[in-house]
Amino acid sequence: MSRWHRTATGHKGGDFPMYVEPSGQDGEAEAGHDPSPCASCAVRADAFCGSLAAPALGELHRLGRKVRLKRGQALIWQGAESTLVGNVLEGVLKMSAMSRDGREQIVGLAYPADFIGRPFGKNSRQTITALSDAHLCVFSRAAFDSFATGHAGMGEALLRRALDDLDGARRWMLLLGRTSAMERVATLLLDAAERLEGAAGKTFALPFSRQQMADILGMAIETVSRTMTRLRDGGVIALPGGRQIAVRDRNALREAAGG
Amino acid sequence: MSRWHRTATGHKGGDFPMYVEPSGQDGEAEAGHDPSPCASCAVRADAFCGSLAAPALGELHRLGRKVRLKRGQALIWQGAESTLVGNVLEGVLKMSAMSRDGREQIVGLAYPADFIGRPFGKNSRQTITALSDAHLCVFSRAAFDSFATGHAGMGEALLRRALDDLDGARRWMLLLGRTSAMERVATLLLDAAERLEGAAGKTFALPFSRQQMADILGMAIETVSRTMTRLRDGGVIALPGGRQIAVRDRNALREAAGG
DNA sequence: CGACACCTTGACAATCCTCAATGTTCGTGG
DNA sequence: CCACGAACATTGAGGATTGTCAAGGTGTCG
To answer: Rounded to an integer, what distance in angstroms lies between the CA atom of residue A65 and that of residue A138?
Structure first.
């Protein structure tokens, strides 16, 4: 019954201790000019903190720090005390669950403006790992919890986000349970293109390896590869090499994704 | 590419308009004796409202009403304005998503004490249907939202619950993406037994049909049936007939579920 | 240029789905 | 109470998709 491939999430420079940079060190955050550095944050409009007014925002900012992760570095290990929460500023992270016998399933992706971690109480049962070099804005859970408790709007904003995540997870379940390899790959590519493609049809870098795509989609790496090849041969996408990709025929891709 | 079975969720007496019973009609809720009927609620200890103190509880109670659903009746239709939220008091419900071409995937189950519906803002994209006769305590979303906003603890309790659901959804994704038919069926049976079995080894009624199990687990009805037969032949479970089931060898079942 | 990780391709096998037929349960009405 | 029919469940045969194993190709970095 154990027919599962090890997921060999072999990352080149993986799992170094992470480099933490205290907030207010980035030049822009020095006192004086910019009392609320969050104001210039690229993801503020889309992130949970967008709902906060200036004073609360400043307070929150003082609790946070910035973290840079290199590709392959992990932020929260499965089972470990989950003491961090935060926002993704740049890059793509994966949330993965692993069963005792070593099978991995990626259970979520976090793109810029997405919230990660598990506030309030229980620990996360997921490991969070950077798929590309990433830049986060993190808070210790304890500090974040008490801040959130003290600010009425926050609970609602976080809840809204959690419920959105839940909707997303459930759509993904539909994908995992009821779709063919082609539909899965096409859906993932469509999603990635929407988030990462500069302009329609433009070439961009896929942030995942084939192995990671396989882990995300719940299939074997070879099937992913074959499916990509089929899409390329059909003129739907172009694969200039490396991890580059371009969507050539968006409608066909949408079609392949199942409507 | 369209190799999917229609899910033929044919329910015998399905989709009647639901019968709504105003709160405070149940005999026990009459004024006088029992100022807070919630106190005698079977699921209060486990439900989100368990965190509320008496006065708030009374207020909440006045907003709610009880709803009974017959097996097969739907509470919230996919795409429709989601105007209800609530708690399951008794029975089992399913949350399902359906793609345009008619494939159904059940994306969640709600057992007693579970919260259903989508408070705050956006509409649910799921349909909620009773798998067995069910008994709920529901609130209109508008009333519930304003109540929750006005009570500090509520947001946090709801968030906690949403995050738990999210964890659950993600475990389920691991199931859908990375496990064999046997593991899926065994996991579902184990879960159902834990929630519904009176005592260990006792016979109880499975609340789902084979078709529903197939929709939950993302597989074909025949595969479910064959897998159940294998479990029976292996002495792991007993199937006395009807929808009855008993777990004979819990360890073997746990083993089959993948550890 | 060589080593290494990553990706692609092929052949084969296994699981699971599809189609089809038969058996069982349950509710209804005679 | 029994007979009938409809929905539900089981079983079998065959085939399609996907996983597994294996080999070779491509790209990247020192």
So the answer is: 6
